[in-house]
Amino acid sequence: MKITSLRFGTLEIPEDKIISMPKPILGFEQLTRYCIIEREDSEPFLWYQSVEDPSVAFIVVNPLFFYPDYRIEVNPKEIEELKVSDVRAVETYVIVTIPTDPRNMTANLQGPILINTETRLAKQMILVNSDYRVKHFILGQTERDEIESETRLEQETPVTV
What we know:
Blueprint: E1 2-5, E2 9-12, E3 19-23, E4 33-38, E5 46-50, E6 57-61, H1 76-81, E7 90-97, E8 106-107, E9 113-116, E10 121-124, E11 136-137, H2 141-156
């Protein structure tokens, strides 16, 4: 199947890689079909590209990459909606927001996207009884301070020719 993406142009996506979201992402209720685009130049991040709207693509990441202790409790009814026969077939992603200053990028740990890799069904969970927030900094304060310090030092260091 050919899809169009504003970021990546025309792409050939195998039909069996199309993901259906009967209950769409909040704020994007009209979009129910997506695919995952992997790009070496953006690892570990992936693109969750809408098949129906070329302008909609979310940056996502496996939350365990940045938050190894990330755990969610899922109501059995929620898993049932994904037609899960083996929980190992469920992949979890979180949407990442990268502002102008990438040091302040955040991940939405309160609204993970679960994808059943066998049925290609997905849904965004909303974790209501959780300490996770919509905006969790990906870089810790120490890392952000170090980058800011390095940047300031680079700007202040005179260049000799």
